[in-house]
Amino acid sequence: MDHKILVLLVMGMFMTFSCDNEFLTEGNPTAASVENSFNTEVEALQGLYAAYSGFQSNDFWAREFWWLPDMLSDETKTAGANLEAHRAALLNYNIDATNPLFSAVFKGVYRVIHRANLVINTLPGRANPELSQESIDLIVAEAKFLRAYCYFELVTYFGNVPFSTEPVTNTEGVPLAESVEDIYNLIVADLTEAEANLPLASAYRGTSNLGRATKGSAQGLLGRVELFRGNYTAARDVLQRLIDSGEYALADNYEVNHREENENNVESIWEIQFMLLRDGGDWQGWIGNGDGFKLQAMRGQEYSPFDWHNTLPSETLKAAFESGDPRYKLCFIEYGDTYGGPGVDSVFTAEKVAQGNSEENTHWRKYGNAYKQLTESLWSGINHRVIRYADVLLMMAEIENELNGPSATAINYVNMVRDRVDMPPLPTAEYPTSTKEELFAAIVHERQVELCSEQCRARDVKRWYREGKITTKPHENYESKHEFMPIPIDEIDNNPALSADDQKPGY
């Protein structure tokens, strides 16, 4: 992807801005700094792309982040002792503030927030003929989208968190927000501005900008935010604007949404961009924080049965699929299935499982490279689809059902998703739709199977349980304190603005 190359060329050029290092200023006054940068469109884009590159870091979407929603959902179970203890602890809801996964996620997410804040706070004050107001508005809006996304992930999983809308320039620390509502107010304001100033997806397709956030990205995320908060009318309004734009449609084939060759397609609303740069190489040469050549993802290596094989699909998830649903075979691989792709097809057997519990028949295929090769080989260039059109349609189905009951409109949204995979339309004997409650159950099912392993389930179950729409707890070990995860203990230790009193109740 051309946009990935652009990010690769500029990432890391603005990584030293977070400290007020007087000795650096005195020793090298021409070194990159806030004061002598962001003066041209090229420099402004470099600052923006530095924020994008943070998503590709090891402690964000390249590896650590998706473990959080995955382990807290009912989609996944351990494949054996090879699953690292701190990940297995989340899977069992054995949760405390010392878990290193929380620390990694905080580092990764706040890195992007800091870089976005640099752009947002610096760029509007620049006056240069090489930097038009139109460019400033676009780049700032894009940075606000990235910041809003990061704060939404934090506030939904951690509740009230350290909150700043400015780049950190000293060691005094960042306090918690005054309230969770303050965080949401910023998220909504950022996304509203992003929607107003970002271009339609069609403006970027076929160009070197493909992969950057668009108006639809802001609309899709804002709809997700408002739905999570229970603001159904607001969620419907913004998602309706996305649908009415005509920019998106379901891809012809469900499986292409998890393959490298079909990235940023007509169904894609926002993706985290990855790129296969090397096949093999040393581990330490790959790990990074998004300020070097770290564009590869780890998901296939972690989940695939051909390499580390750390997780398996849960019995709950497997049982959710209706008989004959082709998505089952597109998400999972079982003994006797072929894999590897044209010219290299092989039959999957228990002997080919790299490690872990090979007695299990069903293993993860989704987001893996088994469709084209016989091993994951550590590296993957498959983009993570964060928001896609099928998700929007199912959100709209839930919203319409909530506001208007089991209307033909609500049912049609679900059936659009089912029709793509040749599943019989609702109502069915298994999923009737005569009442609001029946259609809700059908929508819950459809989201579970359509979006499995796409980091949606944990947040869905949390909001449904919180609103009393489902009675089954998110996990058998779930307690009220698990509504939010603890602030990492090292964050409290290292942030002078925090104290033990700021920790979440129960931790």
UniProtKB/TrEMBL annotation:
Protein known as: Putative outer membrane starch-binding protein
Superkingdom to which the source organism belongs: Bacteria
Species per Swiss-Prot/TrEMBL record: Marinoscillum furvescens DSM 4134
Record CDD domains: SusD
All residue ranges annotated as the SusD-like N-terminal domain in the record: 72-227
UniProt keyword list: Cell outer membrane, Membrane, Signal
Domain RagB/SusD: 305-507
Family: Belongs to the SusD family.
Entry GO CC: cell outer membrane
Cellular compartment(s): Cell outer membrane
InterPro entries: SusD-like_N (IPR033985), SusD_RagB_dom (IPR012944), TPR-like_helical_dom_sf (IPR011990)
Pfam family, any one: SusD_RagB
